[in-house]
Amino acid sequence: MSVSGLVSQLLEIVIAIALAPLLTGWVNQCRAWLQNRSAPSLWQPYRMLHKLFNKESMVADHASRLFRVAPYVKFGCMVLACAIIPTLSTDLPLAPAADAIALVGLFALARVFISLAAMDVGTAFGTMGARREMLVGFLAEPALLMVLFSASLISQSTSLTTIVETLAHRELAIYPGLALAGVAFTMVSLAENARVPVDNPATHLELTMLHEALILEYSGRHLALLEWAASLKLFAYSCIGLALFFPWGVADAHAPLAMLLALPMLVLKLAIGGAMLAVLEAVSAKMRIFRVPEFLATAFLLAVIGMLVHLLLAR
Which residues of 172-181 are buried (b: 16+ CB within 10 A; e: fewer)? Predict the structure, then answer.
């Protein structure tokens, strides 16, 4: 394990933990501007986390140990997911574990724990939210795998670092299959992060919400960890999209000094991506929950068509 690799790995983890709430604040601010509303402060997510960490955690009397452990498991899974995604450098000690299937497995593990915890207390809204979360995951995870496999066909590897290195050093070209995969990834990302049109993060209507229904019984530091994990998930999906479709600017394993340029490049790309997400949410309307399977099935179909197009053009 090289010193530069260890530094880049630690730097990726620290930046993910530190910048994830800032990305959420930036998206909320852009969305408020587009809706002609008074925008909240860019640092509002940090203030909310500080307030929640200083509050007492109230737990139901009949809640099991799973209910208390789930926020820590979800937060840990999101941090590990951000750690194996090459955002600053491809020289990562966790690169052997940075496999597409392992990445989707981390998201699935976090989903299972939070869904079981939501059903553990026995409330009606928690159980309803868990069912909806598992429905979204059941449809979104195969589509995400197909998107990652579409990119892996170009690099002949499912390793994220290999995919980034291959795409970053190829000549600028248009890949029709990758373009279709990009549309599918955008749809999956909206569903997985509970954004419009699948869910509205600004609402608290019990009959329509997905993410909020899972965490209604949490408070204090447990709720803070879940909100932080949600920001980390948005950060992770944003970095996956940048790594697959805009890999330029990521430092090579043999050029550790390039990380000095990779950090401002990452911040710039995240700022542009967050603004585009706000625009997409501003011009969209939330769909009915019964339309979500059709939405995600379309994403899966686009990803599969992207794979087939790449295989046909490669002959």
Answer: eeebebbebb
Q: Which tokens sit at 10?
A: 């630690």
**Token digits for 19?**
């910048």
How many other C-beta atoms lie within 10 A of the C-beta of residue 22?
19
The Cα–Cα gap between 210 and 133 comes to 6
Q: Check if the beta carbon of residue 261 is closer than 8 Å to that of residue 97.
A: no
Is the Cα torsion angle 83, 12, 275, 201 positive or negative in sign? Answer: positive
Q: For the chain, what percentages of helix, strand and coil (3-state, to nearest 5) are there?
A: 70, 0, 25
Which residues, listed in sequence order, are joined to residue 89 by a DSSP beta bridge?
251
Rounded Cα–Cα distance for residues 281 and 24 (Å): 13
Predicted TM-score (pTM) of this structure = 0.94
Give the orientation angle of helix 3-34 with respect to helix 259-282, to 10 degrees: 30
Q: Where are the beta strands (DSSP E) in the chain?
A: none
CB 299 within 8 A of CB 187: yes
pLDDT digits (tens, 9 = 90+) for 261-283: 888 999 999 999 999 999 999 99
> Given the structure tokens 């509303």, which residue do they identify?
37
The pLDDT of residue 201 is 75
pLDDT(305) > 90: yes
Q: Which two tokens stand for residue 116?
A: 């079981």
Phi-psi region of 36 (alpha: psi -120 to 50; beta: other; left: phi over 0): left
Long-range CB pairs of 123-127, under 8 A, 24+ apart, other chains included: 123/216, 123/217, 125/206, 125/213, 125/216, 126/213, 126/214, 126/216, 126/217
